[in-house]
Amino acid sequence: MTLSMCEAEVNEVCVTKQGISLNVRAVIAFKVGNDPESIVNAAQRFLSDQDQMSVLTGRIFAGHLRSIVGSMTVEEIVTERQRLATEVLEGSKEEMARIGLHVDSLQIQSIDDMKIGYIAAMSAPHNAAIQRQAQIAQAQADQAAAEAAQQSQRAQAEYARQTAIVRAQYKAEVDKAQAEAAQAGPLAEAKAQQQVIAAQTELAQREAELRQQQLVAEIVRPAEAEAERVRLIAEADAAKMKIQAEAAASYGRVALDRMLIDQLPAIVKEAAQGLSSANVTVLNGADGLGDVAAGLVSQGLAIFEAVRKNMVSAAPADPTEQSVNGGRPELDPSR
Questions:
Q1: Largest interatomic CA distance in the chain
Q2: pTM over cut 0.70
Q3: Which strands sit side by side in the sheet containing 21-32, from one edge to the other?
């Protein structure tokens, strides 16, 4: 006798506690027990015809299925299908053990109210609630999707706005840089021209100052020197006349004084001519030239006095001893 797993199907019309007929279909998995008692019991019943095990098992479970379904409502049967299977197994366990069989599982495959619509009506409120929840969920999903789409559009618009601002700023910076670059050349040229003009102006000022200094050296100073020479000659002439007057009043010295007086203008004139040809720098202008001229006259007078004293000391006491030679006394050749 085989001890492998066997199956039996049950397709039974059962009446519920509410009097509603249900067609219940189930599958039972069973086998002969491993213990000696179960083997002996199964052998006694099914040794001649093992196919009867499935038939008998089906009948046993059908009876217990009708009994359990009759004690439950449709709602309990539909919602507590595992409870139905457990109670059927528990109810059939003792009877299956007596024939040496052990049930591994019972699966309720379907429950059908045979198109009376009770199960459908029973599920209608739940279906409606589920549909309502589904619609609400769908509406919420649609709303969330719309909000997400609007948020995405706003984000895209904001991004486009920021992009436009950045592009405008970049374009403004580029335009500014180009304008500055375009102006850099003319500005640099104008600045260079200004520097050239300033340098030329400074050079012209220096040239004017140099020319002024040259004019002073070439014209003004020679003119001042000539004027001073003329003044010196005039002063010498005046001194000559004064000396002549003083010499005329001196006793016995007229001829000598006359000779020296005649030589005095020549001395001063020679000094003045040297002054006019000399490149002399006078610090205090006309006053400085006056000081130079006075110095020349004083020098001439000093020379005159020195010569006169020497000649007086060498002359004889008697004025009649003077030899007339052009009205001038003879001079000592050694002097």
A1: 219
A2: no
A3: 6-15, 21-32, 101-112
